[in-house]
Amino acid sequence: xxxxxxxxxxxxxxxxxxxxxxxxxxxxxxxxxxxxxxxxxxxxxxxxxxxxxxxxxxxxxxxxxxxxxxxxxxxxxxxxxxxxxxxxxxxxxxxxxxxxxxxxxxxxxxxxxxxxxxxxxxxxxxxxxxxxxxxxxxx
Length: 139
Description:
Mean pLDDT: 87
Shape: globular
Number of strands: 9
Distance between the termini: 65 Å
Low-confidence stretches: 1-21
Helix content: 10-25%
């Protein structure tokens, strides 16, 4: 009987410990000002090494409903990250550019800092600690 009670106690402690253990943080991103319902909004989550240089750590595609797109990145470990998004109006899975190099499609980055030229890591970065994050990025 003592063995059964001990076993059940250990199983309960293990269950509670695992229930509280998470692999990372959730980041929910909302774009509230999409200009049309054409296409989707593409999102990328980057660290400093990949921002504007390589494929994102995680990517997501948000449906546009009533001028709004919303996605969630899950299991994000603590660290510094930046997010970029683009309204992919023609659904070709990439950002389109004019012949002179200017973007044809609206885009935005975390912290909503938009300057002339490509987005800068120092302006787009944010810190993930122990709390889930909800942010808004404007195009």
